[in-house]
Design goal:
- By secondary structure, this protein is mainly beta.
- The protein has a domain of 80 residues: LytTr DNA-binding domain (OB fold (Dihydrolipoamide Acetyltransferase, E2P)), CATH 2.40.50.
- Helices cover 10% and strands 44% of the residues.
- The protein is built from two helices and eleven strands; from the N terminus they run ββββββαβββββα.
- The chain has a five-stranded antiparallel beta sheet with strand order 6-5-4-8-7.
Amino acid sequence: MKNYSDRKDIRHPEMLWFDHRKTCIKPEDVVYLKSCDNYTKFYLENGRNFLASQTMKKYESKLLDKGQFARIHRGVLLNMKYLMNFEQDDKGSWACLSTGEKIYVSRRKIKNFSQI
């Protein structure tokens, strides 16, 4: 996350803004988002994460226009740029990310990714 005090950057359409337009992130730096009740937790490429005060549905509508994001679970929105492959075991399906993380994929949503 970056702090921008220069007013020319405040209108940049590709950025996601937080804290009353004091901080922002690039959509391509977002690995995935996780729903936490009425909040959204962002997981970034640099390993940092933070909690935002809006629902994931609000951010989903913004991010679908700005990158390759897809829901892999009711509570998880994944940037497909970081997806390496899918694995299955006796507990279910997992999305393996280039960051080394594995995220559970719902049975219903895995059908959408059968061609990958």
